[in-house]
Design brief:
It contains 14 helices and 35 strands.
């Protein structure tokens, strides 16, 4: 949940003054532009001589406006995009034939049009039926919606272009990120923007990670921002958040007070404002105290009381933010706004923010000191208190004082247990709000042993190399949270298909049956799945010998780091651990030929890898046990200079995971 100081006041002022009503529908991208003959005939990239495709131009117009609705007016930001791309070879054809335009739930993609211009000048334009919505999973595991389409008749020498409007309703360019880099080189990218003139608020811009030029035209009162010859952005495994490495411009409106205060003085002022905003929510009321007293029951310790309160707000209040709540978009739009925790308690439904505030109010009614804390989101970028922009600590949690310590709790995130936060909010500086002396506190980082993947396999190997048996996998900690968030809005059949696809990527001949997936939306029990598997050809038969990889769960997994070079720092989202136990009944007449095991190794307290291999007393069953962890001591971020050592470590893990045993006929 985002929170920006003065945003409600800004919108109220805009409504009162009627600002923006004169803006017409954005004209940028309404019509196709003529194709330059030289562009169509060109065969050489401009930005990167080895490029397979290149953006000729990418232009966008940003408009803040007040849109007249049926019953009332509402603010919105509209960004009109127009891109023209040159295809140089078959690799460019392959990479640019399918287009995804990612967008957030609150965003609409409108007026989408696309066309291909073949080298001979023939034009093929897409129809409305050619565009569709789908869900994509980005690096890092987060799901996002995308408007998708396939470009027709793309070939080397062709030009493709598309245009669309990105509509953000009920908001203005209040901390809007404008991107300047794509996955292919860009010759020219340019944004234009005419900010609203709002009394008491000034238009601000902050460039990050690149030299973004700007100009202001006094006559039209329009800003222009541009970059030229922008190289392609290439993702690397385990890299920092995108907005730590990609160039972008942050645009927003701010008061003079916000721009003049700096450092600790600024954060103290923000902390006081946030404290005042939520002070009334934590005022003790009889109905809240009665509910809290009933919820904690006979719990005596502070930790037990808080756990009982957390269980109460998560089970008694339906979280309207989540798809699992069962609301349609229309039903969700009709839900009444909860103005107080009492409203949330009475109605039994609320947003994640409502649930968090109810938890805080119930804790306060029992005598706990309760505050709202603002915390960064390191999924997007790293928070630096030296940069006094509240956008970078726009997430919120509840802090409760237990003894001398502040415990930061996230009641509004359904699957996060007490003592943990969402991974992107852990190991972060959090602003503890106070009427006088707001301070920063560090949120804890969950250690590897609490975020684990426990995998068990009971298998039987046939003499032809077929492996068959039953699998059980259980997740805990951050892995559990991640798996639930990835699966909870999928249908049961889609979850099963996702699992099949995952295993098939590792073992193409695998056949899965009797799939069971438990605790997908359970707020306490761990996400778990089991299945029966049959893998023909898992063991390799050569004459009288069978060669077997006992690390079943690592079979077919590619090395984590394949490149010998590295541009960006190495960043793991959180520490984790893996615990595997594999039992394999050997085929009749075969015995294990010297069951040697990989040697254990580690990296100080950061990581450790251990494997034990043995056979049962009757020599009929192989037992393989594997334990691995990474991120000990809170080590999850490493400079690019550490890449060779990290690559060596994970290459060693990969090599030992592919350790092969030999079975021979007696």
């Amino acid at each position: 949940m985002k929170f920006f100081p003065h945003f409600i006041a800004l919108l109220s002022l805009v409504f009162c003054l009627g600002l923006g009503a004169s803006f017409a529908k954005p004209s940028s991208g309404d019509e196709w532009r003529p194709i330059d003959k030289g562009e169509l005939e060109s065969t050489t990239p401009v930005v990167d001589k080895d490029a397979d495709a290149e953006v000729i131009f990418w232009e966008a117009r940003v408009v803040d406006e007040i849109q007249e609705g049926v019953e009332t007016a509402f603010p919105r930001t509209v960004i009109s995009h127009y891109l023209r791309i040159k295809i140089f070879n078959d690799r460019g054809k392959e990479s640019q034939s399918k287009i995804d335009i990612p967008y957030e739930t609150s965003v609409e993609i409108k007026d989408l049009a696309a066309r291909t211009i073949k080298p001979d000048g023939t034009i093929i334009e897409l129809q409305k039926k050619d565009f569709f919505d789908r869900t994509i999973v980005k690096q890092g595991g987060n799901k996002i919606k995308a408007k998708s389409f396939a470009m027709p008749n793309v070939e080397a020498g062709a030009i493709i272009e598309y245009r669309y409007r990105e509509v953000r309703n009920n908001t203005l360019s209040f901390y809007e990120r404008l991107d300047f880099q794509r996955e292919i080189p860009v010759r020219n990218v340019k944004y234009s923007m005419k900010p609203l003139a709002i009394p008491g608020f000034g238009f601000q811009m902050r460039p990050f990670n690149g030299r973004i030029q700007n100009d202001f035209d006094k006559k039209s009162e329009t800003f222009s921002f541009w970059m030229s010859n922008v190289p392609a952005f290439h993702e690397e495994p385990k890299m920092p958040p995108e907005y730590e490495v990609r160039p972008y411009l942050l645009v927003f409106y701010a008061t003079a007070e916000d721009t003049e205060r700096q450092g600790a003085l600024y954060w103290a002022g923000l902390g006081k404002r946030v404290y005042d905003d939520y002070k009334a929510a934590f005022k003790v009321r009889d109905d809240i105290r009665e509910a809290a007293t009933g919820a904690v029951g006979n719990a005596t310790s502070d930790d037990d009381k808080l756990q009982k309160l957390l269980d109460f707000v998560r089970t008694k209040i339906k979280n309207a933010n989540r798809d699992t709540a069962g609301f349609t978009d229309a039903e969700r739009a009709k839900l009444k706004e909860n103005k107080t925790p009492t409203d949330t308690l009475k109605r039994g439904v609320g947003t994640g923010k409502d649930i968090s505030l109810l938890f805080g109010a119930m804790a306060a009614s029992l005598g706990f000191d309760v505050r709202v804390v603002r915390v960064g989101n390191r999924r997007e970028s790293f928070f630096n208190p030296g940069l006094t922009i509240p956008f970078f600590i726009s997430s919120y949690d509840i802090a409760v004082k237990v003894g001398a310590d502040w415990h930061v709790i996230d009641p509004g995130s359904s699957y996060v247990p007490m003592g943990m936060l969402l991974w992107q909010e852990e190991a972060q500086q959090a602003l503890l709000t106070d009427p006088k002396e707001s301070t920063f506190i560090k949120t804890p980082l969950t250690p590897p042993e609490k975020s684990g993947e426990k995998r068990t396999a009971k298998l039987k190997l046939s003499e032809d190399g077929t492996l068959e048996g039953d699998i059980n996998v259980e997740y805990s900690g951050q892995l559990d949270i991640e798996m639930k968030n990835l699966n909870d809005d999928d249908s049961p059949s889609q979850r099963e298909q996702n699992l099949r696809d995952k295993i098939k990527r590792q073992m193409s001949t695998a056949e899965l049956s009797d799939i069971k997936i438990w605790n997908v939306t359970d707020q306490v029990k761990h996400f778990t799945y089991s299945y029966h598997v049959r893998v023909p050809g898992y063991g390799q038969r050569t004459g009288k010998r069978l060669f077997l990889q006992p690390a079943f769960f690592e079979h077919g997994i590619e090395p984590l780091f394949s490149s010998n070079s590295r541009k960006f720092a190495i960043y793991f989202h959180y520490p984790w651990s893996e615990h595997d136990e594999v039992w394999i009944e050997l085929p009749s007449g075969f015995t294990l030929d010297s069951p040697d095991a990989p040697h254990p190794f580690g990296a100080g307290g950061i990581s450790e890898y251990k494997v034990a291999i043995g056979v049962t007393a009757d020599a009929k069953t192989l037992r393989y046990k594997r334990d691995f962890f990474f991120g000990g001591g809170g080590n999850i971020m490493f400079p690019e200079t550490s890449y060779p050592a990290l690559k060596q470590l994970f290459d060693a893990v990969h090599e030992e995971d592919n350790h092969t045993l030999t079975l021979k006929i007696n």
